[in-house]
Amino acid sequence: MEHQALKELYVDELKDIYNAENQLVKALPKMAKAATSDDLRTGFEEHLEQTRGHVQRLEQIFKALGEKPTGKKCKGMEGLVAEGQEMMDEDFEDDLMDAALISAAQRVEHYEIAAYGTVRTYAELLGEDEAVTLLEQTLEEEKETDQKLSDLASDINVKALGDASGKDSSSEESDQEEPTPIRKKTKTARA
């Protein structure tokens, strides 16, 4: 009985992740288009292809389980995608937009890392060895993407600091300047 209950939870969580990945397949092209850094844009485009592979792996797992991958809406990813869209709707300067996009993308990656780690553990407990291998491969790719985003952020965030202060980050202006707001203007009202 307990084994069956865990399997039902496992399938339910897989459906959630499947929906999340499909939401990302739609969101990543928008993020790539909004990126001003060539490296960031390329990273989003590469991760889109990787995400399509994640969808295929999940479909392979569902087929082995004799289950359909549909029937669940991932509200967590829906919220993360909506937050990312809010950032893209802001009128940020180039490097600041890229910093915001990295922030949104890393939230997504952390969500996926947690989700894939959980279902991989369920698969291990249920003796689903092939699924464990596929889920571990995806988990490692999500971790690698998160690290790539961190690496890009180390450069882009410094440039964004220069944009926010009104200085070129490579210039040697006085340290006495007052900081300026990070946004030129906002398109949406905040509470």
Q: What descriptors fit this protein?
A:
elongated, 191 residues, mainly alpha, 0% strand
What does it look like?
The chain has 191 residues and is mainly alpha-helical. The chain has a single domain, classed as Ferritin (Up-down Bundle). It has helices at 2-34, 38-65, 75-89, 94-125, 129-165. Helix 1 (2-34) packs antiparallel against helix 2 (38-65) and helix 4 (94-125) runs antiparallel to helix 5 (129-165). The protein is elongated, with a radius of gyration of 20 Å. It starts with a helix and ends in a 26-residue tail after the last helix.
Uncertain ranges: 167-191
Q: Note the gap between the termini.
A: 48 Å
Q: Please give the share of residues in helix.
A: over 70%
**How many beta-strand segments?**
0
Main beta-sheet strand count, sense and barrel state: none
What is the residue-mean pLDDT, rounded to a whole number? 87
Q: From the alpha-carbon coordinates, what is the Rg to the nearest angstrom?
A: 20 Å
Shape: elongated
CATH structural fold name:
Ferritin
Number of domains: 1
CATH superfamily: Ferritin, core subunit, four-helix bundle
The helix-and-strand class reads mainly alpha
Question: What string gives the helices and strands in order?
Answer: HHHHH
Task: Give the SSE map.
Layout: H1 2-34, H2 38-65, H3 75-89, H4 94-125, H5 129-165
Helix pairs in contact: 1-2, 1-3, 1-4, 2-5, 3-4, 4-5
Gist of the model:
By secondary structure, this protein is mainly α.
